[in-house]
Amino acid sequence: MYNGDLVKLRAYKEDDVERAVEFINDEEVKKLLDSNIPFPMTKWQEEEWVKSRKAETNFTYDFAIEDLDTGKYIGGCSINECNLKNRNCTIGIMIGDKNYWGKGYGSDALKVLIKFIFEEVNMDKIKLNVFSFNKRAISCYKKVGFKEEGLLKREIYRNGRYYDEVPMALFKEDWIK
Ligand SMILES: CC(C)(COP(=O)(O)OP(=O)(O)OC[C@H]1O[C@@H](n2cnc3c(N)ncnc32)[C@H](O)[C@@H]1OP(=O)(O)O)[C@@H](O)C(=O)NCCC(=O)NCCS
């Protein structure tokens, strides 16, 4: 529905679910995304999750990310927790197909999502949290304009030790510039 240079953000289709579960259950992907115990998710849990995400009532907006060239479903990005009074929201992104990592697909998808958020949802600030060891994601977020807002010390326990978490944000006025 919304096109960037490399990707299209579109609605989820029923037959994305199987691939989505594969993406989420990849150990590396899961450990970059989820602060909880990295335990595999079942297909029916994913289906329930999709059903629970009603854009109109919860103000959560989920897009599947498709490679513009091939039409292949490669991941997803979402708006979570819209605060309508303070006009801020949190976002999340996953390029689940690792063949697409580090080739600009994530930043392209984010650019499209950011435009949608500022120009259609009318938010003033976009927020996200990223684990300090997720250097690719931090670099991707900085590339599209996010700035670090501080450091949450020892926030995540992963692979037998504690890591910090980095809150990052992008304001509409900085994006317009
Ligand atoms: C994070 C993610 C969305 C980024 O998407 P992507 O398509 O890989 O990112 P891009 O290619 O647009 O940008 C990544 C940048 O990081 C750089 N990079 C890659 N590996 C890196 C590393 N180990 N350290 C520092 N920078 C790195 C790339 O060179 C690129 O920068 P450049 O374009 O200036 O060369 C994607 O990798 C992903 O979904 N990962 C798994 C799930 C995840 O981590 N989600 C985010 C949770 S907060």
Describe this structure in words.
- The chain is of the alpha+beta class and 177 residues long.
- It contains seven helices and nine strands, in the order ββααααβββαβαβββα.
- It has helices at 17-24, 27-33, 43-52, 55-58, 105-121, 135-143, 172-176; strands at residues 2-3, 7-10, 61-67, 73-83, 88-95, 125-131, 147-148, 152-158, 161-171.
- Strands 1, 2, 3, 4, 5, 6, 7, 8 and 9 form a nine-stranded mixed sheet that branches.
- β8 and β9 form a beta hairpin.
- It is globular.
- The protein starts with a strand and ends with a helix.
- The mean pLDDT is 95.
- Residues 29, 32-33, 75, 93-95, 101-107, 130, 134-137, 139-140, 143 line the site of coenzyme A (COA).
How is this fold's topology laid out?
Blueprint lengths: L1 E2 L3 E4 L6 H8 L2 H7 L9 H10 L2 H4 L2 E7 L5 E11 L4 E8 L9 H17 L3 E7 L3 H9 L3 E2 L3 E7 L2 E11 H5 L1
Parallel strand pairs: 5-6
Antiparallel strand pairs: 1-2, 2-3, 3-4, 4-5, 6-9, 7-9, 8-9
The structure holds coenzyme A (COA).
* Tally of individual helices: 7
- What small molecules are bound in this structure? coenzyme A
Instruction: Provide the residue-averaged pLDDT.
Output: 95
Shape: globular
Q: What percentage of the residues does DSSP assign to strands (E)?
A: 25-35%
- The H/E string reads EEHHHHEEEHEHEEEH
The largest pleated sheet is described as: 9 strands, mixed
**Amino-to-carboxy terminus distance:** 26 Å
Rounded Rg: 16 Å
By helix and strand content, what is the structural category?
alpha+beta
Q: How many strand segments?
A: 9
Low-confidence stretches: none
